[in-house]
Amino acid sequence: MSQPTNQLAVFNFDNNKVRIILDENNQPLFVAKDVATVLGYKDTVNAIKQFCNGVVIHHPIKDSLNREQNVRVIYEPDLYRLIFGSKLESAVRFQDWVFNEVLPTIRKTGSYQTANTATTTASPVKEYSNSDLQHLKHVYNIPQLAKVLGVSEPQAIQRLYQSYADTANDIKLIDNNTQAILNQFWAVVSQLDLNQINHSKKPYILAISLPEVYALAGQQLPDKTQLQHALQQSLMPKFQQANHVVSSRITNQAKRCWNFLTNSQSQTGATQ
């Protein structure tokens, strides 16, 4: 398990301090009590026990009187669990603040930016459970989720799909042969450049032309007839329409595409 360092940063959200330290891999650790307080939990200790499934690390931090106190610190997945459990309207704003302001200041250089120098260290991919990802897909579109996970957009799609496929297999929603075809297809798509194949102008819709995908990676793909049948059962990304005409983001012309929903928070049946 990574150990915390002594590098401390104090952020302010609505006049509430949120203290963050880095572990030895430069991953942010949030002081759990600060987060729970901001999110309106009256019993912060119970909230941490209820929502934080990860390892809660105890780490000494000096208070305003320069006294050393042990505090509980949590990684990002548990931060999001506390956010999801909060009943405050400001929880969404806090989530956006963490995503848009706090994390970029940390990840821009791989460390907190100080007045002198900053050490850059490549950060490992965060380990989110399948349950975490099923929550996150309701909150973020693919570009945002990729930033949260610290991966590329194609990798984010692949990770989401794998998490959903595992869940789907557990309750046997899709037969094994169909699931194998879907696994093969989305694994190939995840390695392609989305900017070259996604014709949708909307961030929560993946609109792809099967002829284009076959032209790019046909030898790696399953039989086209079997694939078309399987894609109509795809759950993540969720199948929407086959051979639907969209106004292409790439060519600005009409293009027949297979549409998939990548963020279920958006309207089902949305096109383009």
Automatic annotation (TrEMBL):
Organism: Faucicola osloensis
Pfam families registered for this protein in UniProt: Bro-N
UniProt-listed PROSITE patterns: BRO_N (PS51750)
Residue intervals of the Bro-N domain: 5-110
Protein name: Bro-N domain-containing protein
Protein origin, superkingdom: Bacteria
PANTHER family: BRO FAMILY PROTEIN (PTHR36180:SF2), DNA-BINDING PROTEIN-RELATED-RELATED (PTHR36180)
